[in-house]
Amino acid sequence: MATHCRAGHGCASRDTSRVTYLTTLSFRGRRLGAGAATAVVLLTLAACGGSGESQSKGKGGAGGPNKGPTTVGYVVVQPTDAAMVTELAARTNAYESSDVRPQVNGIIRRRFFTEGSLVKRGQPLYEIDPRLYRAAVNEAQANLQSARANQEAQRVQAERYKPLAAIQAVSQQEYTNAVATARQATASVAQTGAALETARINLKFTTVPAPITGRIGRSLFTVGALVSASQTDPLAQIQRLDPMFVDIQQSAADMLALRRSLAQNGVVPTRAVVRLKLEDGSDYGQTGSVEFSEALVNTETGTVTLRASIPNPQGLLLPGMFVRARFAQSINQRAFLVPQEALTRDAKGAATVMLVGPNGKTVQKPVTASRTQGRYWVVTSGLNAGDKVITQGLNNLKPNAQVKAVPANSPQVVKPPQGRDGQQGNAQSKAG
């Protein structure tokens, strides 16, 4: 048995000595049977065989596979147009607003509208007692007739004095006075005519019309109330709610930064399309546009007001509502859109991305990314056209690590498992 062990498994001579010693001991004591001695020999041989197998694994066998470079997925970034979107607080205002006020004094006799209804421009709303103003019109008409009669008499007298003055039948002074009196009578006709027009206008003002088209609010005066042209309170208020104005407050510092960025290359202005978010967090379906920006900074808040106009066909927006306005004031033509999973931030908030270097090693690059657009970060600095940004396989990936870079979302090739002898796993089934 010692010869067989040395030939098959390469056991040392000390192993043979152990077998001889154990066998001799079993014969001397006569307590070990033949089966027990055989079991001891087999255990020794098994230990010898296990030692050889461990040596083969240590030399690079099936038990010690070599780990290759990490496979990562990357995307190639290129500069593109990215809108510089801003979200600011805003408040809605009526597109048109007008107070209904009386222009004459008197008692309200009738009201012609329903509170909260839609009224048209020129539609009668109130009637003030017109009797006094109608009488004033009649009086002005009579005065006009009297002035015209006097005008005619003075004109005829002046014409009669003219030939008499030529032959010196009357003095020149009397003729001059007659002509002046005729002219005064003509002026009196014009004055009484203007008074008649005023009386007619005042009579017309006894019917109070709607100054604009819109939705009228509650009536602040009832029938029988005394109103005057000099009162401070309006009779009612009309507001046009379609479209609506949205007054957006932007800080003067942000406005200054925007104007400076527009002076740089790659940033161009754009017509701002405004989208609103209501107080309950829902999105308002309609979109509008910024009409103008005030050239004045509020000294109390340090903000500039931007006014936008937005449709309101269903009347969902009401004056005085607080909303959030989201719009783009400019377009950066040299921005990069990087998937969000590719960008990481440290404890201080600094953003970095991992790139695939030219030698197949990773390079960590700091970037500037202050906002998102959909599922992308908008990177405004730190990247160059053609950079390979790693988006997959970033777990425990360190800078300057050797990687195997493939395009992102590439299909993974799965190989069948290998046996210990280097053949496929189905070799065992063929052997069976």
List the SSEs and their pairings.
Layout: H1 2-9, H2 13-29, H3 34-58, E1 70-76, E2 80-100, E3 106-111, E4 118-119, E5 124-128, H4 131-166, H5 172-205, E6 207-209, E7 214-216, E8 226-227, E9 236-251, H6 252-262, E10 267-269, E11 273-277, E12 283-293, E13 303-310, E14 322-339, E15 343-345, E16 351-356, E17 362-373, E18 376-381, E19 388-392, E20 403-407, H7 427-431
Parallel strand pairs: 1-20
Antiparallel strand pairs: 1-19, 2-9, 2-14, 3-5, 3-8, 4-7, 5-6, 7-9, 9-13, 10-14, 11-12, 11-14, 12-13, 14-18, 15-16, 16-17, 17-18
Notes on the structure:
This protein has 432 residues and is an alpha+beta fold. It has four domains: 2-58, no CATH class; 72-79 and 334-407, conserved putative lor/sdh protein from methanococcus maripaludis s2 fold (Beta Barrel), CATH 2.40.420; 84-94 and 241-331, Efflux pump adaptor protein, beta barrel domain (Elongation Factor Tu (Ef-tu), domain 3, Beta Barrel), CATH 2.40.30.170; 130-205, Helix hairpin bin (Helix Hairpins, Orthogonal Bundle). The protein is 31% helix and 34% strand. It is built from seven helices and 20 strands. It has helices at 2-9, 13-29, 34-58, 131-166, 172-205, 252-262, 427-431, and strands at 70-76, 80-100, 106-111, 118-119, 124-128, 207-209, 214-216, 226-227, 236-251, 267-269, 273-277, 283-293, 303-310, 322-339, 343-345, 351-356, 362-373, 376-381, 388-392, 403-407. The strands form three sheets. A six-stranded antiparallel β-barrel has the order 2-9-13-12-11-14. Strands 6-5-3-8 form a four-stranded antiparallel β-sheet. Helix 2 (13-29) packs antiparallel against helix 3 (34-58) and helix 4 runs antiparallel to helix 5 (172-205). The protein is elongated, with a radius of gyration of 51 Å. The model is unreliable at 1-65 and 424-432 (pLDDT under 50).
